[in-house]
Amino acid sequence: MKVNWEGVYPAVTTKFTTDDRLDNEMFAKNIEAQLNAGVDGIILGGTLGEASSLMEDEKDELVKYTAELAKGKVPVVMNIAEQTTKGAIKAAEKAKANGADGLMMLPPMRYKADDLETVTYFKAVANSTDLPIMIYNNPVDYKIEVTLDMFESLSECENIQAVKESTRDISNVTRMKTRFGNRFKILSGVDTLALESLLMGADGWVAGLVCAFPTETVAIYRLQKAGRIAEAIEIYRWFLPLLELDINPKLVQNIKLAEVATGIGTETVRPPRLPLQGVERDSVLSIIKEGVENRPSLPVYLNL
């Protein structure tokens, strides 16, 4: 299935049972909610998906199962976060074999590669597959920035088509558009900058709190796309305290707790992560409770 790299792409959480297995039943319930809300793609195995703690066979199962659930309605994108070029090429190959329609790629893990090493890594994987690729540019969390000059070199690979823009520099959307025009699709990767990025010309939103609030997330995207900016802003202002749960070291625990509140997830995480406790848990629950109690009425947006 073609990946257009436009619209809302949930970076979905991975659901676990209390005995630390994949919880396919709850995962399916969440994916159904995402599809019903009108998302434009599904991204697996990102930070929110607890990728670093997933076994290789679990990643295989996730891709296969999600492809079955999506039924060709939206593309399924698998995140590639590997330590070696060899490992990344193998992961890309397996993702395609298991039914992925596209890839999201982080720079090499653990080793802080320089610019040439990073570009060479991305190109090697891109040249090994015909799957379309979105580069995940997040120097805040992963310590390697993919600069505009690096994107210039990466533009030689036709299947490197998009960027998940998570530099936290809102002007980077304009810099990319000014230099490359429409060569790369830009998807905001920071929930608290999403509407601002879209209004500056970003093509989509790789979202986190969408995992718990899919309809509100898609409504914001569709409304701004239709030029109904005031309506989008009103929902976004309600949403912001919840979106800030994504900009936190415990974003996985935070968002899984929000999924519990909206009935489409559990708070079970894989150790060494643990569910939130004490004052920290109470604080997050208070934010979620406030949001749920004041959840806005949404206009009809699916036909926009």
Automatic annotation (TrEMBL):
Domain of life, source organism: Bacteria
Keyword annotations of the record: Lyase
Catalytic residues (positions): Y136 (proton donor/acceptor), K164 (schiff-base intermediate with substrate)
SUPFAM superfamilies assigned to the protein according to its UniProt record, in alphabetical order: Aldolase (SSF51569)
Keyword Lyase (UniProt): yes
Pfam (any one): DHDPS
GO molecular function, one term: 4-hydroxy-tetrahydrodipicolinate synthase activity
Keyword Lyase: yes
Binding site for pyruvate: V206
Identification of the protein by name: Dihydrodipicolinate synthase family protein
Species the sequence originates in: Roseivirga spongicola
